[in-house]
Amino acid sequence: MRILVTGGAGYIGSHTVRQLIAGGHDVTVFDNLRYGHRQAVPAERLVVGDLRDIDHLDHLLVVERVEAVVHFAASTSVPESVKAPAEYYTNNLVYSLQLLDRCRRNGVGKFVFSSTAAVYGLPDYGVPDAVPIREDAKKVPVNPYGATKLAFERALEDYSFAYPFGYCALRYFNAAGAAEDGAIGEDHTPETHLIPIVIQAATGKRPHVEIFGTDYNTPDGTCVRDYVHVDDLAAAHVLALGKLGPGKRLTYNVGIGRGYSVREVIATVEAVSGLTVPVKEGVRRDGDPPVLVAAADRLRAELGWAPKYTNLRAIVETAWRWHKAHPDGFGG
Ligand code: UFG
To answer: Which pTM was predicted?
Structure first.
């Protein structure tokens, strides 16, 4: 299949691009390299461009005779979205809608979208079995990031009813880890994600990790997240593309179905690295739901998704290997 991958040089994008290429697909990566890394994708596949440049994208859809778009390019930080909603609505909604419409006009019938667990907001603790979160759970995002992603999901759905078009929205829980062979891994600037931050604190690259809130109504008072290995996440995209066709409306959680607290993440990094992590207990971060754990049985049942990494330790081991070999990320 001829596939355009926006944001394909980013963390999840680049792991997916590798699998798509390995699966024999003809992949064009479109990335502005603001967060993505040139070294994370094969040079001959990369087109440097910005999502806002819709004419550039349109040109690629035509000349590359694109059959499917996998759309990663987005602003992706929950706390940043609280401070800069304008940027999030523009990048994640306005530019994505432009892209979607060019897909329609150019007859691109398959679209895989990077959605997020942040669409759910606060799990409805009053409802029995609210956690793990099922795809049909109530969706009331508690931050602009989740709100923009949910709005675009809705556009996809409406398009699929009116046009010859099918989509898959993958609601990522917490992507983590690095490629098994150590070739690529997680490198954000600035880094805001827990596992790389804890590793940096362990190795002395930062003085400590601050725990954002220790007074949540969770077993140890810290937030609980469902960490899913980036290669398992990537595999879900490949499976989704295989299922897509006109009128298909697919929405899946991508998570392991098991939650770990911030303190458990810190303890796991200590166990894997053999190092001590300096910790500072801090206040809650805006926009953080206390618990996000996926019910991921729909993805397993319908697409045959079978994650290779089913516990945090296995995921952290791959992250630790990448960070040890690349202390300065792709710059090192
Ligand atoms: N955390 C800390 N200290 C830090 C960094 C994070 O205590 O220095 C805590 C956060 O408060 C949160 C947990 O660790 O409770 C995980 O935080 P991350 O920033 O690693 O990830 P988020 O859960 O905020 O967000 C991630 C992705 C989003 C996605 C979300 C869905 O970055 O894009 O998962 O679950 F929407």
So the answer is: 0.96
- Is 145 annotated as catalytic? yes
The interaxial angle of helices 11-22 and 230-243, nearest 10 deg, is 50
What pLDDT, in 10s, does the model give residues 26-38? 999 999 999 999 9
Would you list the domain boundaries of the chain? 2-177+227-254, 194-224+258-331
For ligand 1, atom 19, the nearest C-alpha belongs to: 193
* 12-26 CB burial, b ≥16 within 10 A, e <16: bbbbbbbbbbeeebe
* Residue for token pair 């602009």: 144
Q: State which ligand 1 atom lies nearest to the alpha carbon of 223.
A: 15
Fold of 2-177+227-254: Rossmann fold (3.40.50)
Q: Catalytic one among 11, 95, 145, 167?
A: 145
pLDDT of 123 above 80:
no
Tens digits of residue pLDDT in 148-205: 999 999 999 999 999 999 999 999 999 999 999 999 999 999 999 999 999 999 999 9
* Each residue's pLDDT tens digit, 270-294: 999 999 999 999 999 987 889 999 9
- For ligand 1, pick from 77, 285, 286 the residue to mutate: most ligand atoms within 8 Å of CB: 285
From the CA of 108, how far away is ligand 1's center (Å)? 34
Find the 158 Cα to ligand 1 centroid distance in Å: 30
Rounded Cα distance, 203 and 208, in Å:
10
Q: Which fold has domain 194-224+258-331?
A: UDP-galactose 4-epimerase; domain 1 (3.90.25)
